[in-house]
Amino acid sequence: MIRTPLRPLARILEARQKGENPDAIERENIRLRHEEMRDKLRVRAEQRLLLLGIMFFCAFMVIGARMGDLAASEPAEPRAASGGASIVAQRADIVDRKGRILATNMETHSLYAHPQQMIEPERAAEELGKIFPEIDVADLKKRFTSDRKFLWVRKKLSPEQKQAVHDIGEPGLLFGPREMRLYPNGPIAAHVLGGTRFGQEGVHSAEVVGTAGIERFYDDVLRDPAREGAPLELSLDLTIQAAAEKVLYGGMKIMNAKGAAMVLMDAHSGEIVSLASLPDFDPNDRPLPATGNDPSISPLFNRAVQGVYELGSTFKIFASAQALDLGLVNPSTMIDIRGPLKWGKHKIRDFHNYGRELDVTRIIVKSSNIGTARLAQMVGATRQKEFLEQLGFLDITPVELQEAKRAKPLLPPNWSELSAMTISYGHGISTSPLHLAAGYAAIANGGYTVKPTLLRQNSAKYGPRVLSAQAAEASRAMLRLVVSHPDGTANFGDVPGYGVAGKTGTADKPKPTGGYYEDKVIATFASIFPISDPKYVLVLVLDEPEIHAAGELRRTAGWTAVPVAAEMIERLAPLLGLRPAIEPASLAGITLSSN
User: Taking the model in full, what pTM does it have?
Assistant: First the structure.
């Protein structure tokens, strides 16, 4: 910067010549220099103030825009709490095949306490005891007066309970937001849905995790944020499920059974339209697991999937179907059924004396153990085992239920010829009713295996072929005669208009310590309908049924399981959209003419 001298020599010399005071020149230059400096400082200050004003204006605009955005948005609770770990509370809904809610979420609150902030802890404990009678008031007083800084009181509160706690007026009682799982239909489809529990918990949220059933099997899917809350669609039909459970419960009570189970399956897609087990429970208030060595005493036990039973004569159709498929016999082939059939020290007998011979069809219709064992001898143990393995009887069922993984079929350690003979009529092998339904589906759909599933399918899902179409058709004809023929073991099972086909099975119930009960049975009826266009398979099982009928105490499936299944088909078939086949009848006094 160029600085102007305060006493320029030329000005000083000029002033002296004119007789002026040279000091005035210096004072004037100082004044001008100060004015120049003040102007520069003023401009700099004005620039700084302008910049600061612009910055404050921008900050206020950002804050105002954010406040407006928050004011216009819906309030939401945070989803993370407790120890810095993320808690994902949201869980997708579960719906039936028509989109109706089976499981959903409901906002509620939890109750916790900060004892050191409480004013009247003992009074608060007494008031809480009035609201929650199950609470131990003495223990709560002890905890409220301890040195603890935090404790849970209740994990879930109803709105009425929350208001009652709020009215206590204790500042140390606090509420935390919660999301709980709600099953609006109560016990309906309880064994399919299973239930949930709280996993990781924080004050402001808690994750809901599956504990059983499809909630446990698809836990990761239901909690996956990437699905954006898309519901899990099941193959169940809520209307059909409710009707089936009502009929099953009534049948269990009438037949004085200890328990009951049913499976209704689409024979072409493997979809399980209905699955029930009794006794059941309410997943909104899931009971504790049973203690002891017999899990079947608990209502949590799923008899349709977890229960592995000897299903008796329902297996006979597989022996005859395989023999037909191999070309060893045809429906009219005569078989020697004279008994008892001896194999070593073992003897196989029939329930009744059916004479010397029966053809293959009547072996199934009359349910001859000896005749079926003869067919198994023709087939051979190796081929029989391979065939049943193809039908899925030797492995756990692949259905999407956590409990199915623990229901492995019970097989003979050595699959001998004797094993083949007894297995042919359902003894010496224990499987679940769901296994049996999948096996009958192969006969119903023309010979293809299907995979049981609880997920909605859009079309038929056939697996490998295990039977020829001709063998499957002949087998269905035999099963139809079991129901329609007067000598059939399931002649109480016919439903007018729907053409039911099926097979009964009555097996002695095994004792936990070995051997069999003499007065307890597992009664089963496996059916296909409508036989004119096979679509569905229904398997119904009663545990320890007995009823007085025709002057006697009856336990066999023909007197117990069959009538219940017939009532169920009659009730469910219209709901499934099946029209009854109405046979034309003559019109009295009216002559029909084409003119």
Answer: 0.79
